[in-house]
Design brief:
Layout: H1 2-49, E1 75-84, E2 87-91, E3 95-98, E4 104-112, E5 118-127, E6 135-140, E7 146-148, E8 153-162, E9 172-181, H2 186-191
Family: Belongs to the COX11/CtaG family.
Subcellular location: Cell inner membrane
Main location: membrane
């Protein structure tokens, strides 16, 4: 009798498992459908309430201009490099023209000509000096010390813009960097090392 009872119990258990599987599949399909339907529902709710309005597709992003760029004038930026130590250090371009407010990037190249690792730092200076407050660097190798391996060559960018509040009589700005070794002892400088 127990064999018969066991098989009936197993059949009932299989039937219950089958029902549970079907219910779970229906729930999974309904959840997927609900998630898929949320996208257009979300857009409709946003349009009705005026919250989080999405950008219309008929706007051509090429026509959108940065209103902070002063396209009525150009400023020439000249680049200079000086070294205190065994380096080759120079900008990849000698000058560029930018509109105030326009983002620009220039690359400086440095080569450690020694057969050992050296730490160095670049210090910027500006001419005319009044332009210093209007020259805004967003990213610069001068923000931290540089470690160069023996005979290593590296390109280091400077990303900047000129504040549109720059006085109109300033037409040219010179950005000059002095690149020098960090950690030299006073005796090393006198000995020429």
């Amino acid at each position: 009798m127990q064999n018969g009872d066991d098989s009936v119990e197993k059949q009932e258990e299989r039937a219950l498992n089958g029902q549970m599987l079907r219910k779970l599949l229906v729930i999974a399909v309904l959840m997927f459908g609900f998630g898929y339907a949320l996208i257009p529902i979300y857009k409709q709710i946003c349009e009705l309430t005026g919250i989080n309005i999405l950008t219309p597709k008929d706007i051509d992003l090429k026509e959108v201009k940065n209103s902070q760029i002063d396209t009525t004038r150009e400023v020439t930026i000249e680049f200079d490099a000086n070294t205190q130590g065994p380096w080759r250090f120079r900008p990849t371009v000698s000058s560029i023209k930018v509109h105030p407010g326009e983002m620009a990037q220039v690359v400086y190249e440095v080569v450690n000509k020694q057969s050992y690792k050296m730490d160095a730092q670049a210090i910027p200076s500006y001419a005319p000096q009044q332009a210093t407050a209007y020259f805004k660097k967003l990213d610069c190798f001068c923000f931290k010390q540089q470690t160069l391996e023996a005979n290593e060559a590296r390109q280091m960018p400077v990303t900047f813009f000129i504040d549109p509040a720059l006085p109109k009589d300033v037409k040219t700005i010179t950005l000059s960097y002095t690149f020098f070794e960090v950690g030299l002892k006073q005796g090393d400088v006198k000995a020429g090392l």
